[in-house]
């Protein structure tokens, strides 16, 4: 017979929650205290509560969510080409894709306006920043549309113009393709809203040298298994959003033989190797279309409450959900909290911006911060915070992706498939780690930090899912 535990044989330990008065009193008496950061979930409106109950009662829900996540985790994305955006995506002069949900010039933030001004200068559609801004404001011959509506994703401002080159990825099982621009590096770059002569010169070099040489190297190498590289980098200390060092070097290793033997000018080959090797974020622009393909595969499952897209344009945060297809649900983008570059503070930061939250949508980035504890030095916090964050993300996700295993959690699969119903029931929002752009056009990067989506996106989504329920 099992003997009852002797609770008096060891010193007591007390778990406390809520206000800290009890914890303080116990600590003063030398009692071990384990405080729990607890706050009650905000009570939803009657409309939202009713919609949530209706969706939870949908007999299709469990099977639909399992199917959406199964499709997501079955994607095997390969880099198949590097291509000019204009030729591949049918863009004409004056067409610009941008990050986040739909946006008009008059509502664009500083970094978005800066990136569009820079793209106008790069495309030769304006003689000066003032001329570009006037033409963008007038809108004549200019079209703005989200990258996500063109099978593409773009980091930060995410602006894509016809002369830019794009990674092209494909999932053979579904036949889907996805695209992302090439990464410029950090600091004063177009995607952070900078547009000085240095930015334009770099874009010209990327268009005339980097893009064509990468195309030669990728075609010479053959399809490159991007999903496998993401899985390896997660086990090597990258989380796939703000840390991509291992992924970048693995990609460079894959293409080097074809790059070196392809017959290009050795000076150009050397410069490409230096540029990619010195840019730890270069592979982010491959991780993102992997996530886009995973979201595309999971989209359109009737009754599913799994999030397939999370993105922001510097003004709005937007999500899409499997069961409602391509419909947008938006709320105000939040300002990240984190660390700033020298000379900047929170007053200089723009609200969250970029399609790169597709990394969290696919289950990496902020969702697996536990696998990249070094990242906390960039975004603020401590190693226990990273572990706690990833553990918390399992509360709001449907599955665990074995392709992206987290070593420190005994190789547990990454938390994958954010479920709108779980977000609303727990009050836990997805964790995103991100760069911060300066609020003033032309500033560039000012820091990096952590941010969450606004709850409004999820409340709108649940109401829409309830409206999609079949008539009883």
Automatic annotation (TrEMBL):
Source organism, top-level taxon: Bacteria
> Span of the secretion signal?
none
Q: Which Pfam families match?
A: AllG
What this protein is called in its record is DUF1116 domain-containing protein
